[in-house]
Amino acid sequence: MKSSTRSIRWSVGELAARFELETHVLRHWEDKGLLRPARDSAGRRVYGEDDAYRVAAILASKASGMSLDQIRTLVDASVDGRRDALRAHLDELDRRQAELERSRHMTQHALECRAHDITTCPGFQAHVSDIVDGTTRGIRFLAGHG
Questions:
Q1: pLDDT: is 124 or 12 the higher one?
Q2: What is the distance between the alpha carbons of residues 58 and 53, in angstroms, rounded to a whole number?
Q3: Confidence band (pLDDT; 50, 70, 90) for 142?
Q4: How far apart are CA 60 and CA 3, in angstroms?
Q5: Calpha distance 146→140 (Å, rounded)
Q6: Beta carbons of 109 and 124 less than 8 angstroms apart
Q7: How many C-alpha atoms does 48 have within 13 Å on its Cβ side?
Q8: Which DSSP symbol is given to 3?
Q9: What is the pLDDT of residue 76?
Q10: How far is CA 29 from CA 11, 83, 133, in A?
Q11: Which of 29, 20, 66, 83 is nearest to 51 (CA)?
């Protein structure tokens, strides 16, 4: 039979070790309102299974690029704006994904280009000539290889 979640009790050091974190990280997250550990009779932090799931959610959200403020919106049921924060994060992920795709395409173009110096590649020059001559700003997705 599975033990009760209420019987699991970890110190700050034990919980931090489970997630390979420094203890100050958990304390910082507590200061930011992301964690609310119970306290024992001596005032020491005591973490349970729910806290461990919250730490896992914080780490997964940070890995996806979310800020601590955004994460607080996700893990705190009393905070409004959860859906707005998620939509904004999806927009940011879409922007970053497009940026990565452009970067990957540029790297692939440079790898396959016959010109040793990408700045001398006719395909690249044609692609950015409108920027160089001032009629356009910003880099568009590269269309072909030189």
A1: 12
A2: 9
A3: very low
A4: 26
A5: 16
A6: yes
A7: 11
A8: P
A9: 80
A10: 15, 22, 50
A11: 29
Residue 143: name the closest of 109, 117, 99, 94 by CA. Answer: 109
Does position 141 have pLDDT exceeding 60, yes or no? no
Regarding pTM above 0.85, the answer is no
Q: Which residue has the tokens 């356009």?
A: 136
The pLDDT, as a whole number, for residue 61 is 94
- The better pLDDT of the pair 126, 27 is held by 27
Helical spans, DSSP H, in the chain: 12-18, 23-31, 49-63, 68-75, 82-112, 122-132
CA distance readout (Å), 11 to 40, 49, 60, 76: 10, 12, 22, 22
